[in-house]
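Ticket closed. Logging final result for Transmembrane protein.
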Amino acid sequence: MEEQIKHVASRLKVIFISFWLLPVIWIIVGETGGDWVGIYADDVRTTYFAETLSILLVAACVPVSLKLFAWVLTRKIDKVSLPEALRLYSFWSKVRVALLSLPVWVGLAVYYLTLSNKGLLCAFIALTASLFCLPGEGRLRKELHINKEEEA
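Final structure:
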């Protein structure tokens, strides 16, 4: 069981690092230029809709990703056996990261396509919210109520 706990924790760390690394790569590519950067900058209507979409995604995804996981943890995960709890914990952690990645990707797209700072702000809000989801073996053990003494 100890091996499974370490495996789940390490897999979640890789996903979290990828969650941060991919936007950094996109920012580097966007800042080096390209024909696609700013193609909708002069279209006021498209910029307005894109900004609104980005703001609404952040307003919906950030609280849902944080609260949904806490709700699922107490209502579903705590009531099953440890192997099933690890599987559910891994699944819902991935769902949480996916929910947070939506406003990041849309925000960066809005920023680079419309050159609107609102998109960048929304992406940074979602990235900052992800810091409340830092994965680790200690956190996994705490949230699943696993003590090392019980495992030995």
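The two ends are 10 Å apart (CA to CA). No further action required.
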